[in-house]
Amino acid sequence: MKLNKVDNTRNASMLLKAVFKGQELPKNLLEKNNVVSDFFDKNESLVFLGEEKNYKYESLFGFAKSFFASQARDYQIDLDSFVKGELNLSHVVAAFVNAYNYVNADIYSAKTSKKPEVFNISLFSQANESEYKDALNKASILSEAVNYARNLQITPPNILNSEKLADEVLNELKQYDNLKVTVLNKKQIEELKMGLLLSVNRGSVYEPRVVVIEYNGNKESNDKTVYVGKGITFDSGGYSLKPGRSMLGMKFDMSGSVFVASAMKAIAQLKPQTNVAAIMCITDNRVNGDASLPDSVW
Questions:
Q1: pLDDT digit string, tens, across residues 45-75
Q2: Domain segments of the chain: what residues?
Q3: Of 27, 195, 210, 242, most Cβ neighbours within 10 A?
Q4: Where are the alpha helices (DSSP H) in 155-294?
Q5: What homologous superfamily does CATH list for 155-285?
Q6: pTM
């Protein structure tokens, strides 16, 4: 389930509303930041968010993440009640959509345990759609791109090697007609004399890949912003072998490459009037009888 619409009518779910210090509050409300008090007689829950001067996007996003992670019933969120201080309705919509999609993302897991029950969430506002439509669309696109990167990051390196990562990105991005995706194999990389990438790859059983993603949103301009992402699917350190404690988590050394790919996924949908490209340089760094030595020159 994705959170990608706002209703202008109430439904039967418990209504979550924000309250702040200085407002007239029910006597049995717990005045502790981010704590939700339930009032079943009114079918409402009130969350105390403290002083208005401390109310920021980051604090609302943090509350929303913890709220969705521990949700125990169906809720409808009164967005208008969260509009306060420097946060307008667009900020509020973005915070809840980003948080919900983050918490409920379908991320790789090898666990086979039963997934927890998922409760319904709906958004409610009496404001005109024009006040939040763009924010809702942008938050949906960006949160989807973030979760795409997260899923690739967490996937184990024995499953997502350099060859499979390049294939995955190509297959994901080919759905966007405004992106051009080029994948260079080992032979093409050798022809381009990319010696340092090939040096890192010497110890691997998988070929290196370079993925180039291009978006041209302003054909009248020659300017182009280029993102380059490091794509080491696992970095053992090679012959400069990392100690065991430092080696754990080195599957995340490819994060830069999936960040730039995910950025291009979002850009393709947002369609900014600019020219952007991303380059993913992908391999793993491991040891075999032919791996590069620290004194080698390439």
A1: 999 999 999 999 999 999 999 999 999 999 9
A2: 14-147, 155-285
A3: 210
A4: 162-173, 186-191, 195-201, 244-247, 255-270
A5: Zn peptidases (3.40.630.10)
A6: 0.91
